[in-house]
Amino acid sequence: MILVNDEPVEHQFGMTVAALLRDRAYATAMVAVWIDGQIVPRNAYETTLVNDGVTVEIVLMAAGG
What we know:
Radius of gyration: 11 Å
Strand order of the largest sheet: 2-1-5-3-4
Helix content: 10-25%
Shape: globular
Order of helices and strands: EEHEEE
């Protein structure tokens, strides 16, 4: 179990940030991700594992003016 934006979420062993984003229907280019308070660089989404018990914050970037 992990927390994603304060919501408990079941996840699979070996899940990466990129897989989590796909499962949650986020466009990779439009989000910023933190795991336990540490920013995950976009170029590491495919290789960064989401381990059991972590807190993930996903922030959707939006243009505005």
